[in-house]
Amino acid sequence: MADEQVSLTSLIMIVVLGGLIIRYLFFSPAAQPPRPARDAQSASRARESAVERIQQMFPQVDRRTILWDLHRNGGSITATTDRILAGRIETPPVTFQPPPPPTSPSPSRTAQAQAPKAPPRPSEPDLITRYKLQDKVSASDETESTTKAKAWSSNRDERQAALQRRRDEMILAARRKMEAKIAAEKATGNISR
Q1: 46-102 tens-digit pLDDT
Q2: What contacts 24+ positions apart, CB below 8 Å, involve 158-165?
Q3: How many CB atoms lie within 10 A of CB 51?
Q4: Do 55 and 63 touch, CB atoms closer than 8 A?
Q5: What are the DSSP calls for 139-185, one per residue?
Q6: What angle separates helix 40-57 from helix 63-72, to the nearest 10 degrees?
Q7: Percent of residues in the chain assigned helix, strand, coil, to nearest 5
Q8: Dist CA 81 CA 46 (whole Å)
Q9: Separation of alpha carbons 75 and 66, rounded Å
Q10: Which of 110, 118, 164, 186 has the smallest count of CB within 10 Å of its CB?
């Protein structure tokens, strides 16, 4: 045993492993430093998006009530939704004053707020315009289409044409019904006056 020598590589390996073990045991960080809290603006955006999502699902619930419940459960949209569905949503106390919804101070918004509001224009055109049925409206006022197609065709193009024809008929029938309803309301309005 006296003849055995420790090689230089094994000595370096023992020193490195010993150093790593000592570093791991004595100098490891006790806990990771907490991440900095999200800044107020991103927290506000997250809160408003949660309120907006819930209000889209439940428009009858006011913003203040949703904010109160989100505040109570730590911002959980699922928990708030479950409470609303179960009918267990609580009215916030009088002392709870939620922050106002964020507004961007752009000059166009302030000009819009001061100007009288015009009725909103629909983003989509009506169905008659959308499906180009203007010529059929005037033609179908007098004549009803009574042509019956066969039950179901094996040809894809024929099926597509039949479905489009059925869609057009349904739109025109709904239009005639609405026009008759409006005419009846006008007639009863004129009689009662």
Answers
A1: 889 999 999 999 999 999 999 999 989 888 999 999 999 998 888 888 888 887 776
A2: none
A3: 20
A4: yes
A5: HHTT----PPPPS--SSHHHHHHHHHHHHHHHHHHHHHHHHHHHHHH
A6: 120
A7: 60, 0, 40
A8: 16
A9: 10
A10: 118
